[in-house]
Design brief:
By secondary structure, the protein is of the alpha/beta class. The protein contains 8 helices and 17 strands. The chain has 2 domains: 249 residues, QueA-like, CATH 3.40.1780.10; 78 residues, Thrombin, subunit H (Beta Barrel), CATH 2.40.10.
Length: 354
């Protein structure tokens, strides 16, 4: 696939018309029963996700994001009686404190309290985060335990139903381990235990990173020129075992296949620490913004869902597989009635030849 990334500078270049009925409101009955658009060549091939093992080779490495979605949406009231909706963006490690988006008729002031679920009070410590856009709260006890007991699954804004019992299970990967995400790494939702077993039988190795997906992943890009956009920051960790697995894969001629854009962002961020071009282990923040022209150092193939128009993730996949090919794949997907966004179908992409 070829592209002309130097000609793509505007957010409007990544817009497309999506029929509302293609926005998936519920997951497929079976995780691996969703559709898979094989976009590695032209014309693309319409497949099902359970065919993925046949599309990979012995020696390839699948890298997953093992973050766990927390029940980050809370409903409560200020001491004055006004209603509050909260989305917990981040639980601060080793503390009772969180950063949160709060929606209220009037912002609560520092020193005031919000009573959540008529069960506990959280103290408002002040504003925090980028441009003071978040609220700093202190919970009375372990935030993760309180969220698990009283919170709701933070379904994306384009899913129109309130969270249900099935969302607790399906808006979570089967290998979720590290709690902290407020959005699922959606490409990984297609994997079930049977599919993972078949991949292992095929000789495909697996490894994990952790990137706690923030609510910023759904925020619209409010500027027209790409170089004016300020990316949100997310915490990630790449363990030494994954660094070793990537090096071993490259040495044997295998392909590093990132499952989802969050995994790709973690791997490519970890290959840009200081002046090094080598993948490095460790935990840190990333605000990497991947646009056409980006030079990938780690990832060879990408499994990803279909993304929002004019989103940073549209820019990322265009950088990876080429702007023109991606736009053509999206036109095909819409014509073939693929299901879009978090509960939708997936694509398999190959990195644009340098």
């Amino acid at each position: 696939m070829q592209s002309t990334p130097n000609l793509v500078h505007s957010v409007s270049d990544f817009d497309f018309e999506l029929p509302p009925e293609l926005i998936a409101q519920h997951p497929a009955p079976e995780r691996s029963g969703s559709r898979l658009l094989d976009g590695r060549s032209q014309p693309p091939v319409d497949r099902f996700f359970h065919e993925l093992p046949e599309l990979l080779q012995a020696g390839d490495l699948l890298v997953f994001n093992n973050t766990k979605v927390i029940k980050a949406r809370m409903y409560g009231a200020k001491s004055t009686g006004g209603s509050v909706e909260a989305l917990i963006e981040r639980v601060l490690p080793g503390t009772l404190e969180v950063w949160a988006h709060l929606r209220a008729s009037k912002s609560p002031k520092p020193g005031s309290f919000v009573r959540f679920n008529d069960a506990f009070d959280a103290e408002v410590l002040g504003r925090c985060g980028p441009d003071d856009g978040l609220f700093h709260l202190r919970f009375p006890s372990d935030p993760l335990a309180l969220l698990e007991q009283h919170g709701h699954v933070p379904l994306p804004p384009y899913i129109e139903h309130a969270d249900e019992a099935d969302d607790v299970r399906r808006y979570q990967t089967v290998f979720a381990k590290a709690p902290g995400a407020v959005a699922a790494p959606t490409a990984a939702l297609h994997f079930d235990e049977a599919l993972l077993a078949r991949l292992a039988e095929r000789g495909v190795s697996t490894a994990h990173v952790t990137l706690h997906v923030g609510a910023g992943t759904f925020q619209p890009v409010r500027v027209e020129k790409l170089d004016q956009h300020k990316m949100h920051s997310e915490w990630f960790e790449v363990p030494p075992e994954t660094v070793a697995a990537v090096k071993a894969c490259k040495a044997r001629g295998g392909r590093v296949v990132a499952v989802g854009t969050t995994t790709l962002r973690a791997l490519e961020s970890a290959a840009r620490i200081g002046e090094s071009a080598e993948l490095q282990a460790g935990a840190r923040e990333t605000a990497i913004f991947i646009t056409p022209g980006f030079q990938f150092r780690v990832v060879d193939s990408l499994v990803t869902n279909f993304h929002l128009p004019k989103s940073t993730l549209m820019m990322l996949v265009s950088a990876f597989a080429g702007y023109a090919p991606i736009m053509a794949l999206y036109r095909h997907a819409i014509a073939a009635k693929y299901r879009f966004f978090s509960y939708g179908d997936a694509m398999l992409l190959e990195r644009l030849a340098r």
